[in-house]
Write a structure and sequence with these properties.
Blueprint (H helix, E strand, L loop, with lengths): L7 E6 L3 H12 L4 E4 L11 E4 L2 E4 L5 E2 L3 H9 L6 E4 L2 E6 L2 E6 L4 H4 L6 H17 L9 H7 L3 H12 L12 H14 L1 E4 L5 H7 L3 E3 L2 E9 L2 E8 L2 E12 L6 H4 L5 H8 L5 E9 L9 E4 L13 E8 L12 E9 L2
Parallel strand pairs: 1-2, 1-13, 2-10, 7-15
Antiparallel strand pairs: 3-4, 5-9, 6-9, 7-8, 11-12, 12-13, 14-17, 16-17
Helix pairs in contact: 1-8
Bound molecules: flavin-adenine dinucleotide.
Length: 342
């Protein structure tokens, strides 16, 4: 794409959903944004593969009903007809058996006969705290300490540690209580939604409405006077873009190398951002698997090596994404996610 220097009010670095969402908002407010994306397609971790008629979301698969901004973006992009209820349930398997919890059904936790009375009382306390604090960003206490304080050690060890270790990146015990509250508010109380035709419809539709250059890897950003210069490699060739402002919508730890002019304390903080490594294997099935729950989590007493000391967790989750062609009936893609945290 032949875009020349100085054309944009704002350059957005990164064509994932954060960058594209920002670009749409800028455009709606009368600015001229330009998105630079390193890969050959937009979306980043909100990406879908289509293989033999199957729709396989590679990263994001479910959006919380509490994600108001995402829902508004979907509406703004004209994708509301594709929104469907995202049904999810998880079976937690420990030595005592398998207990299931459905999304949007907090009562599954309160009425769980597989846990002790003390644990059920702790679940009630947790429910009240969830109502009070799910919006408040009060940090200062990690999840494990919090559950100990409300005498919910059993709830934590038998439900939330195995069930949430993956979603929070492999360190649920040291995650802030706030992270846990927000994840559980979305999962157990509000429920989820997704798109029938793959989540990448959102970044694709956004990218169609703003200027985007793909295969454009930003190498260096420099501010001088009233403008910002963005040195970029586009299809292997060096190119310079200028703008009045930039937005960095890339993983935090990549920022310091691009922006050496940032204050030292900001660079140091961003450099410490860490992401877990995740391996996803997608297995396509011609009909839904005959299992009661969409996902499974296991404790270390069932599969030695998983859980507290280990950094491995396994979950299998059938994703009910109906596909349009190649199959006479609804097809289900099953994603077997093995997540390793190094
Ligand atoms: C396996 C998995 C499952 C997930 N499931 C869910 C889920 O069910 N629900 C949910 O809400 N969230 C989920 N997430 C989290 C969600 O995917 C992310 O929070 C979200 O997609 C991040 O968007 P982003 O735009 O901030 O970053 P990214 O999607 O990472 O976008 C950053 C973009 O910047 C580009 N980039 C990087 N460096 C440069 C550079 N130098 N120059 C130009 N471009 C650059 C990258 O190529 C990328 O496209 C999941 C994540 C993973 C990995």
């Amino acid at each position: 794409m032949a875009i020349h220097s100085g054309d944009a009010d704002v350059i957005v670095i990164g064509g994932g959903i954060a960058g594209l969402g920002a670009a749409i908002r800028l455009k709606d407010r009368g600015f001229e944004p330009l998105v630079l994306e390193a890969e050959s397609r937009v979306g980043g971790r909100m990406t879908t593969d289509r293989v033999n008629g199957f729709v396989v979301d590679r990263g994001v698969t479910l959006f919380g009903n509490a994600f108001g901004s995402m829902r508004a973006l979907v509406k703004r992009l004209g994708l509301s007809p594709l929104v469907c209820k995202g049904k999810f349930s998880v079976g937690i398997q420990d030595a005592a058996g398998c207990r299931g919890y459905r999304s949007g059904r907090f009562d599954d936790l309160l009425l769980d006969h597989g846990i002790s009375w003390r644990a059920r009382l702790a679940s009630i306390r947790f429910g009240f705290d969830l109502l009070r604090y799910h919006r408040a960003l009060v940090h200062g206490e990690d999840a494990q300490t919090y559950f100990k304080r409300i005498r919910g050690e059993e709830v934590f060890e038998r439900i939330f540690r195995p069930g949430l270790n993956g979603p929070v990146g492999g360190a649920v015990e040291t995650s802030s209580r706030v992270i846990l509250m927000q994840v559980l508010w979305n999962l157990l109380v509000r429920g989820q939604w997704n798109l029938t035709d793959g989540v990448d419809r959102i970044p694709e539709a956004a990218a169609a409405q703003v200027r985007v250059v793909t295969a454009a890897r930003v190498r260096h950003v420099e501010q001088s006077g009233e403008s910002v210069q963005v040195e970029t490699e586009v299809d292997g060739k060096a190119q310079r873009f200028t703008a009045r402002r930039i937005i960095l919508a890339i993983p935090g730890q990549l920022v310091p190398a691009l922006c050496p002019q940032l204050p030292a304390e900001t660079r140091e903080l961003l450099a410490r951002t860490q992401y877990s490594r995740i391996v996803n294997a997608a297995v396509a099935l011609s009909k839904p698997p005959n299992v009661p729950y969409a996902g499974y989590a296991f404790t270390s007493d069932v599969i030695p090596g998983l859980g507290r000391k280990s950094r491995w967790s396994i979950s299998a989750r059938p994703i009910d994404v109906p596909t349009a062609r190649a199959w006479p009936e609804f097809s289900f893609g099953t994603r077997l996610g093995c997540a390793a945290w190094m």
